[in-house]
Design goal:
The structure holds 2 protein chains of 2 kinds.
Chain A (H helix, E strand, L loop, with lengths): L4 H22 L3 H26 L5 E4 L10 E4 L1 H20 L1 H4 L4 H23 L3 H20 L5 H30 L4 H7 L7 H18 L8 H7 L5 H8 L1 H14 L5 H26 L4 H22 L2 H32 L10 H4 L1 H15 L5 H15 L3 H26 L20 H29 L5 H4 L1
Antiparallel strand pairs in A: 1-2
Helix pairs in contact in A: 1-2, 1-5, 2-3, 2-5, 3-5, 3-11, 3-15, 3-20, 5-6, 6-7, 7-9, 7-10, 9-12, 9-13, 10-14, 11-15, 13-14, 13-19, 14-15, 14-18, 14-19, 15-17, 15-18, 15-20, 17-19, 17-20, 18-19, 18-20
Chain B lengths: L1 E3 L2 H18 L4 H27 L3 E8 L5 E5 L2 H27 L5 H20 L3 H19 L5 H32 L17 H18 L8 H4 L5 H28 L1 H7 L2 H21 L3 H21 L3 H32 L10 H4 L1 H15 L5 H15 L4 H26 L15 H19 L7 H12 L9
Parallel strand pairs in B: 1-2
Antiparallel strand pairs in B: 2-3
The chains are: A mainly alpha, B mainly alpha.
């Protein structure tokens, strides 16, 4: 069983998702529990796999599908980076899947089953993307993730159709660009296996085809990451997504393409060749513009979800500039920020989903006195907000710390200024919310789903909110372990020389 | 010798624990305030128990966990940190009782949040005092900003909102700049541990970079220390309840700013390096200017708490100026004045709070005749005022004496004039208050009793006044502030005489 852990990460949720409709037909809630259980299984497998990798001192775990050897067959590779991300994805997916049950509870079997099928498939797509060792297989998982993502966004209600359709159009361009890039690479190297392609592409690093491929990857993943200025689809998609799934979509979905970008630029192509370094420069400029414009746009919003969406544009910019620094600290900062930001954004979307569930309100100027009604949620928002600003000891501080170190060691002082300004802009728009919640007079809110009791929300919703809130602090205290025991074990070769 | 002992963290942790207990005893005011009182006494006890070893030249040190791959969350008790830790924990004890009296007397709302935030502030102050490296220092520094923010916001009205925003803008911006400075220090030197006499050298980086780092790091301290022109938040923050103004805006928060300046000058850069790169003169000018300007502004304030706030700005700049003069005696004077000003200013603020609570009068021009109604309070107020003005046999004298000697030692005798002028100005803005209280007749005879005399408020005032007198006559009485200050300045200035003498 242990040696099958890598494939279980994907296999369990995919079978559960496919069986979900059938089970839901039998009994309304059975399908949803099946998916939740399978995601728990996947989480468990991911933890097991990561433990094995760490026990082997960072040596990657290879799993050959059907026993076919790598250049021919598809393999799953779990190295420390993909292992930690698989754990992250399954953990957040588990929390969100439990959390979203109250949203669909009153629907008929078709809705519940459909929702959880899409949810399971999305988890599969994201997990598959991080653990696969094959570039075409990655495309398949990218599409699985995106298609189920379109579905989950479209489930959100009136305006979500348009948002989903827009994302579908733009997202397809991104995916096609990626496929095009894979085509170029295949034309040059004749292989689809990542390790193989990395070795074989060494001789082609100066060919124009390679430059084309890198360009396609950067733009393709840039669209999927919602990197400024390719983020047009994102604010609407996050705002109108199904409130139950928004935490997963906003928290994780846009991080996975950035993982893929890391895999290509840092692990396969190395960063020390001219094409990739100029790609990184472009990435840096996009990141800086995203940080500044995203933060300013977030200031201008009054819809809580939309504000968070623009804040995501800015936070993705952090990841981009971390990569653009092209040194070890920048890389560590970027990876750590993927993890931290997943938690922070997930926490915030869980809370706004809860507020929407209970009061049907998303206007951030109408949240006065919320600390009395939903205490746990407001504590979580406080932690997440402090983490967004990057104040110690919350998680966000530590990724910022490594990013600052990276900027300094790379003598890119400009980034230091940008990070400082961005923290301050974050402070403005998050303290605005904290002021609303804690200080302002109680807003007259109508209770859509009346809920008495201390938690302020159904238990299924309150517990995940509490867990991510604590998680933000815990990640802060354990960030040094994540960095030294996991990320540093799996650093790309270029930084080890 | 280093003693591995977790007591520093216990001192920090005890008030964190108290904050949690306070939050859970929302419904029982007596229990809630008992937690706070117990925590303050235990904290003071823990800190005092470390004093003897520190006086023998030993350090207590404990690393709780790693913050980053190379830097730990470490607390260490060196003499400089010990001065601040003893001072803050010592003053928290009487302050606690005063707080209880004041909050109940005024029937303030949100008392649970108030006491909890207060306890967290004291934890962070302990952390700041004993932090062994820059990153630990920064973590507690930001925590203090966050924990003191709700206290400024306590009144929950428009004015408090504006004051708290102003406070956040000042402190967060400077905090982020400080962080940028820390990163630069770490990258050029590879370490962050405070070392007496500084760990940066001219070989590590070009001159301009060292100057830039110095400016970044000093800005953070100067904002919290309210050195002009970065003082805007302090008078605004006087909207907070008086105990907050007394302990935080006269002792803890502003003193962390000053302490930050002292740490950066003494333990990161060191006097030798600073004398070489030279930016420190600008700091000395700013401090001297702010001493004089703030005193002149204080003369014109009619609101009692605002007058005291401007007086605080001036007095804090004494310490900054002492540090910026870089001579052994001026640094010793700076540490002594850290103690002296805290004891005097907390007394003044507590008196002001009692006057406001009893008479509901905020303005000095309305205080006629209260000397008769509140004789003990006004006596204490007068003693503390004289101390601020630098009377011998009161606590402010010995520190000013050292500061003035330090200016001579540094070869900058003009600064002595600044201190003389400011002493006169201090007398000029504080003595009229006493004059008003004692000599002016009440024309309307309309001071009536507003509630009972609260001994919870009066006794702490008497205690701190007694401290001011005792420390003035015997500056080295237990817990040996004078000795600790001498040790700190000797450690910083080992082999450095300040240039002139």
């Amino acid at each position: 069983m242990m040696q099958h852990a890598p494939v279980m990460i994907v296999l369990l949720p995919v079978s559960a998702a496919l069986l979900c409709m059938l089970f839901s037909r039998i009994s309304k809630n059975l399908g949803s529990w099946l998916v939740i259980a399978s995601i728990f299984g996947a989480f468990f497998s991911a933890v097991t796999a990561l433990q094995q990798v760490i026990a082997n001192n960072g040596a990657p775990l290879h799993y050959w599908m059907g026993g076919w050897q790598p250049p021919i067959g598809i393999e799953f590779v779990i190295d420390p980076l993909s292992g930690i991300l698989a754990v992250l994805i399954t953990f957040i997916a588990l929390l969100v899947s439990i959390y979203s049950r109250p949203f669909v509870k009153d629907e008929d079997w078709l809705h519940i089953g459909g929702y959880y099928t899409l949810f399971g498939l999305m988890t599969v797509g994201m997990c598959g993307m991080v653990i696969t060792g094959d570039v075409f297989n990655l495309y398949v998982y990218l599409e699985v993730m995106s298609l189920s993502g379109y579905g989950l966004i479209a489930l959100g209600g009136k305006k979500s159709m348009l948002a989903a359709f827009r994302y579908l159009l733009i997202g397809t361009i991104g995916a096609s660009l990626y496929l095009l890039g894979v085509g170029y690479m295949y034309a040059m190297t004749g292989t689809l296996n990542m390790a193989d392609m990395a070795a074989l592409s060494a001789g082609h690093l100066h060919s124009p085809l390679f430059a084309m491929a890198v360009g396609c990857f950067v733009i393709g993943f840039g669209i999927k990451m919602a990197l400024f200025p390719l983020h047009g689809w994102q604010p609407d998609a996050y705002t109108y997504a199904h409130p139950g799934a928004a935490a997963l979509i906003a928290g994780i979905m846009s991080k996975i393409p950035s993982y893929a970008m890391i895999r290509f630029l840092f692990y396969m192509f190395k960063v020390d060749n001219p094409v990739v370094s100029s790609a990184l420069n472009v990435l840096g400029i996009m990141g800086v513009a995203g940080i500044l414009i995203g933060s300013v746009m977030a200031l201008a919003q009054y819809d809580f979800r939309r504000m968070l969406a623009y804040s995501s544009v800015a936070q993705i910019g952090y990841i981009a500039i971390g990569l653009a620094m092209g040194n070890m600290y920048g890389f560590i900062g970027a990876v750590l920020h993927i993890i931290n930001h997943a938690f922070m954004k997930c926490a915030l979307f869980l809370v706004i989903g809860g507020i929407e569930y209970r009061f049907g309100e998303v206007n951030l100027y109408r949240l006065g006195g919320l600390n009395k009604k939903m205490t746990i949620s407001t504590i979580t928002v406080t932690f997440a907000a402090l983490s967004m600003i990057g104040l110690p000891p919350t998680a966000g501080f530590f990724s910022k710390w490594y990013l600052l170190l990276g900027a300094y060691t790379g003598a890119q002082y400009f980034y230091i200024g940008v990070l400082v300004i961005s923290s301050l802009l974050n402070a403005i728009y998050f303290f605005r919310i904290l002021e609303q919640m804690f200080i302002q007079r109680e807003a007259s809110l109508t209770e859509v789903h009346r809920h008495k009791g201390k938690l302020g929300l159904p238990v299924e919703m309150a517990v995940p909110i509490f867990v991510v809130g604590i998680g933000i602090i815990a990640l802060g205290f354990y960030s040094v372990d994540i960095v030294t025991d996991i990320i540093k074990l799996g650093l790309p070769e270029v930084f080890l020389r | 010798m280093t003693i591995i002992d977790c007591r520093p963290f216990l001192a920090v942790g005890v008030s964190f624990l108290a904050a949690v207990l306070i939050a859970f005893s929302r419904k029982y005011p007596n229990l809630r305030e008992t937690w706070s009182a117990i925590a303050s006494i235990i904290k003071f006890g823990i800190i005092l128990s470390m004093v003897p070893e520190v006086l023998d030249g030993n350090y207590y040190e404990w690393t709780l966990c790693q913050i980053t791959d190379t830097v730990g969350l470490t607390l260490r008790t060196d003499p400089a940190g010990m001065i601040f830790a003893v001072l803050a924990s010592m003053l928290w004890v009487p302050m606690n009782f005063y707080s209880i009296g004041y909050m109940r007397c005024n029937n303030e709302k949100e008392q649970t949040g108030y006491f909890a935030a207060f306890a967290i502030c004291m934890s962070s102050v302990m952390g700041i005092a004993m932090a062994a490296n820059l990153l630990t220092f920064f973590m507690f520094y930001e925590l203090l900003t966050l924990a003191s923010y709700p206290l400024v916001l306590h009144k929950r009205n428009e004015e408090a909102l504006m004051a708290s925003r102003k406070y956040l803008i000042y402190t967060l911006i400077s905090g982020q700049l400080f962080l940028a400075g820390i990163v630069a220090v770490y990258c050029i030197s590879g370490t962050m541990d405070f070392t007496a006499g500084g760990f940066l050298t001219t070989e590590m980086a070009p001159r301009w970079l060292l100057q830039a780092i110095f400016v970044l790091m000093i800005l953070a301290g100067s904002v919290k220390a309210a050195v002009m022109p970065l003082h805007g938040w302090l008078p605004a923050a006087m909207i907070a309840p008086t105990p907050v103004s007394a302990l935080l805006h006269a002792v803890a928060v502003v003193k962390t700013g000053v302490f930050c300046v002292l740490r950066v000058i003494g333990f990161v850069f060191g006097p030798k390096l600073l004398a070489e790169i030279g930016t420190v003169d600008a700091l000395a000018w700013a401090a001297a200017a702010s001493i004089l300007i703030s005193s002149l502004i204080a003369l014109r304030q009619d609101h009692l708490k605002r007058r005291l706030a401007f007086s605080t700005i001036g007095q804090l700049s004494y310490i900054v100026l002492g540090a910026a003069l870089l001579s052994p005696l001026s640094i010793k004077g700076a540490y002594l004045h850290l103690v002296a000003h805290a004891v005097m200013k907390i007394t003044l603020f507590m008196c002001a709070g009692l006057i406001i609570a009893r008479t509901h009068r905020n303005n000095i021009s309305e205080l006629y005749g209260i000397g008769k109604k509140l004789p003990v309070t006004m006596a204490c107020f007068t003693i503390a005022s004289l101390g601020i003005a630098g009377m011998p046999f009161l606590v402010g004298f010995i520190s000013k004496w050292n500061l003035a000697l330090g200016a001579l030692q540094a070869g900058k005798p003009l600064y002595v004039l600044v201190w003389v002028a400011s002493a006169l100005l201090a007398a000029g803005y504080l003595i009229p208050v006493c004059q008003m209280a004692y000599l002016k007749k009440d024309p309307h005879e309309d001071i009536r009793e507003y509630g009972e005399i609260s001994y919870r408020m009066l006794i702490p005032i008497c205690i701190t006044t007694a401290m001011a007198v005792i420390l003035g006559i015997m500056p080295d009485i237990y817990p040996h502030f004078y000795e600790l200050a001498t040790m700190a300045s000797q450690a910083i200035c080992a082999g450095w005489t300040g240039g002139w003498l």
